[in-house]
Amino acid sequence: MKTRSVIVFLLALTMLLPGLAAAVEQEQPTTYIIKRGDTLWGLSQRFMNDPWYWPNMWSKNTDITNPHLVYPGQKVRVFPDRLELVPRTEAQAAAKPAESDVAEERSFTIRGSEGHLLENGAMPFGSVVATHNGRVILGADDIAYTDIGAANGAKGGDTFSIFSDEGPVSHPATNEIMGRKIIPLGTLQLTDVEQKASRAIITMSYKEISPGAFLIPYRSDRTREVSLKMPSRELRGYIIESQSGTQGISAGDIVYLDLGSARGAEKGNMLYVVRDVAVDRSVTQGRVDNLPQELLGALVILETGKKTATALVVKSIDVIYIGDKVVSQAK
């Protein structure tokens, strides 16, 4: 009887061995040695067919402060479902790359039309209070009148950015008013200045301008680049509004966050968009606490205020909504 049991066990083990061997073989990584000009971005595209995979490596290798600068000779383990950077030796860590080893920076463009949140306590410098001949809509080269004058320190030739007031933005979790969403409309230049008023000419318009539009000291609307930058501390926050005002958000959309410079957020920081998964308590019987968060996408901070930031969604795996969380490292 004992002999029969042993034979049955050996037969079962024989049947399992090919599967176990295949699993072990599948887990065995290929090793790639980084060459001059390689980037985490490029390695992710090459081996994972997804250039946006690289933050997974970046966040787990704090010695890499620039995702576009990895060191020739360093090794990468390539698995079917992931990449792992082999930690550098002390000698490699002490060495600095030659200028020729540094790959071209990957950057993101600020076009000047993203808008931002005018945070609580901040006030517009003035507003458009009237138009020439009572026109309802203004465009380039039209005449406008403002409530900015010499009493405000203004003089002829001063330039202001024009914004529309889209209303207050409340935090989706706390209901705190975070500020007012303002969207750029154009620019104007003062021509004739009285004590408490002035005449101006619209020098540029992106959208229709009407009386009541906010005026803020000129903000450059030129196109400029923002390079990626590793967050200096752990960041956690929320998407509190979208530029379009729609609930559903996808790649290419502009959003506003409750993270600003006061909490360590900086231009160029890339964050993951995540969502908590609710536990069905009726079936878990208390055995499960928190489930892994659902990864929805990624975004890059373009500009920061003290408490808020403007960001570009660069990847969306699923539909993103106002109220979804953002973190500097996904779990």
From TrEMBL:
Keyword Secreted: no
Secretion signal, residue range per the UniProt entry: 1-23
Domain LysM residues, every copy: 30-78
Entries under SUPFAM superfamilies matching the protein: LysM domain (SSF54106)
InterPro entries, A to Z: Bact_Kbp, LysM, LysM_dom_sf
Keywords carried by this UniProt record: Signal
Highest rank taxon of the organism: Bacteria
PANTHER family given in the database record: PHAGE-LIKE ELEMENT PBSX PROTEIN XKDP, POTASSIUM BINDING PROTEIN KBP
Protein name (record): Peptidoglycan-binding LysM
Organism: Pelobacter propionicus (strain DSM 2379 / NBRC 103807 / OttBd1)
